[in-house]
Amino acid sequence: MNHERVLAIAIKRGIVAPDAVLTDDEINNLIFAPGFSTATTVSDLSGRGVGMDVVKQAILGLGGRVTISSVQGEGTTFCLSLPLTLAVLDGMLIVAAGSTMVVPVSSVVETMMVNHKDIYMLPDGANVVSIRGVCMPLIPLASELGLGGYGTSRGLSEDDVILVVENESGARAALIVEDIRDQAQVVIKSIEKNYRQMPGVSAATILGDGSVSLILDVPALVANALGRIDTRPSDVRTGIAA
């Protein structure tokens, strides 16, 4: 794939900001954006920017991943990973705003306690956390899902927990949750067929006690967080963009 052309078209269509600084993996994944197409004319088979978006959503809906590796002039490899049992998901049960939710274990990189010294506020108001010298967006899960809660580092509790999660391209973000309860296999239930689509939520499940729990859409949460922060290089000590 021609990364320069893909990025230029994404900027032209308003998919990414004109000053966005993206890695090759992030540029590759732009082809999955709704409405993205490099075709100059629309035909019966291509040009509407729908096909790749539908493919990705179908794979994510099954609890899988799709990744791309591409070298211009040599070729492109698409890697599709699907769970052996499509209806069952290995999940981590977490608590946000008093509600138990499920984070796919495959998306969790590590967990840790909150350390206020590692949290910084950027000029645009977004919060990032520095973990071993690497900055990533800080997402208060309850606030992100519209359940109230805190929006800045001042509202965090020392008892809160950070879940470092990543999407299919390896981009990472830090989820702030109140507690981690357990790890369990859950049966995936479609939420769109029974209710409606919810931002940041991919499906639902019924726990052992009969309660309904939401299964989080980690790629969507990471993408939303990355889309809100200033992508220009910044000084970690001050949080000021260069």
TrEMBL record:
<protein>
    <recommendedName>
        <fullName>histidine kinase</fullName>
        <ecNumber>2.7.13.3</ecNumber>
    </recommendedName>
</protein>
<comment type="function">
    <text>Involved in the transmission of sensory signals from the chemoreceptors to the flagellar motors. CheA is autophosphorylated; it can transfer its phosphate group to either CheB or CheY.</text>
</comment>
<dbReference type="GO" id="GO:0007165">
    <property type="term" value="P:signal transduction"/>
</dbReference>
<dbReference type="InterPro" id="IPR036890">
    <property type="entry name" value="HATPase_C_sf"/>
</dbReference>
<dbReference type="GO" id="GO:0006935">
    <property type="term" value="P:chemotaxis"/>
</dbReference>
<dbReference type="GO" id="GO:0004673">
    <property type="term" value="F:protein histidine kinase activity"/>
</dbReference>
<feature type="domain" description="CheW-like">
    <location>
        <begin position="88"/>
        <end position="227"/>
    </location>
</feature>
<dbReference type="InterPro" id="IPR003594">
    <property type="entry name" value="HATPase_dom"/>
</dbReference>
<dbReference type="Pfam" id="PF02518">
    <property type="entry name" value="HATPase_c"/>
</dbReference>
<dbReference type="InterPro" id="IPR051315">
    <property type="entry name" value="Bact_Chemotaxis_CheA"/>
</dbReference>
<dbReference type="InterPro" id="IPR036061">
    <property type="entry name" value="CheW-like_dom_sf"/>
</dbReference>
<dbReference type="InterPro" id="IPR002545">
    <property type="entry name" value="CheW-lke_dom"/>
</dbReference>
<dbReference type="Pfam" id="PF01584">
    <property type="entry name" value="CheW"/>
</dbReference>
<dbReference type="InterPro" id="IPR004358">
    <property type="entry name" value="Sig_transdc_His_kin-like_C"/>
</dbReference>
